[in-house]
Amino acid sequence: MRYIIGIDIGTTNTKAVALTDQGEVLGSTDASYPVFSDASGRHELDPDDLLNAFLSVLQAILQKTRDPAMEGLVGISFSCAMHSLIAVDGQGHPLTRAITWADLRSEAAAAALKASEAGRRVYRQTGTPIHPMSPLSKLIWLKEKEPVVFGRAARFISIKEYIWWRLFGQYEVDHSIASATGLLDIYTLDWYPESLALAGIGPRQLSAPVPCTHIRTDLVREYRDRLGLPEGLPFIIGGSDGCLANLGSGALLPGETALTIGTSGAVRMTAARPAYDPKERIFNYVLTDQLYISGGATNNGGGVVQWYVEQFHGADGGAAKKDLAAWVAEADGVAPGCEGLVFLPYLRGERAPVWDADAKGVWFGIRSIHTQPYFMRSVLEGISYSLYQIGASLEETIGPIQQIYASGGFTHSGIWLQMIADVFLKKVSVTGEADASATGAAILGFYALGFLRRPEDAVSLIRVRETYLPDEGRHRLYQEGFRVFSALYDRLKDLM
Question: Domain 3-242's class?
């Protein structure tokens, strides 16, 4: 029985799953690490914390699945969060922490670029909307605000590139991660000269772009011995977490849409070519040379739910000892639409479809009838409306959503899954028993090694666990709330 270990390196934790070529999950595990943030908009991770978490989950999953000869393990494949940036010196030592997608310090640089003709050209050629999330914006900010660090840097790399360099001594970046930087021309699959000029760097300060199926077998001896791995075991570079969540959810055919809610959230479709949006609302990232992932991400997913419970009900005492499922169950007793209470969930600014780092959270329509369950439900509805708005942008650009495949931590809540089905008026399916991005990494590994003829054949490895059917009556109620939701931001953005 062959299996691949897929590892997803995320913003708050790293997850690993062992998946067989029959679609069976042999085991899964995860490890978390601290985030360094402050009021300036800083949001960083320690590169060595990330490396240690990677090694920890790999060791743990190997222990769960190990056989004496390790005959079943045919490869290890990577998924990783997008948009990170680490400056390193000539020896590969970090000069900065890993600046994540959630870091907002490059807001002014992004706003200036977005308002320019150069910004429009960058979006068209790179597929990455202009926003503080992108490494391009971060590089411009670093050049302006940290010139000493910028000048000392020999290279600028991502989280995955740092770990890959430590494992193999090579600076390589997959097309998927590279296509989310604002620096890669998604049509030529090479670094885009205008972006490099804007950032003030040369191509030699970036890693060599390689396909997501790129394989290395020359793991440095230190880690091979530490992990007890056989010599020559294939490591597949893999792709980004968003692209691989589509693959791991089985959302690969026209109209099939992946919806993820973890700390943040996203709605994504798979297409044969990039889908240019004149309104610059959606991204276009590379999975393979024949598959592109188009969609939009929200900054504000499950992290907003966690914020609500902790800030309004105490993080470690009293009523907050109820688990999250109990809060959500209470909210389910409130009718859709919350009697006019509407929540804009923009606590961390917003990405798609408004792309506004200044966006703020708002409760609108508060009346004396609105008790805690109403506020809890309004939070879930606000996040769902935000994703629905992204879905509408995708439908305008690519085509209609036929079915939704859900992934992420929110899939533990049947109430929230039903809400998504009703808001979108689409069937929602939950696939797999492990993290969709880590599962997608394993599936891409099978494709890279030749065990799958094409990525679309991954459907044979994916199991539908649950299905939620939409209710038209509830959808009509949600449409009333969404009408107010979508008007609020436009009316308030100047004040924000």
Answer: alpha beta
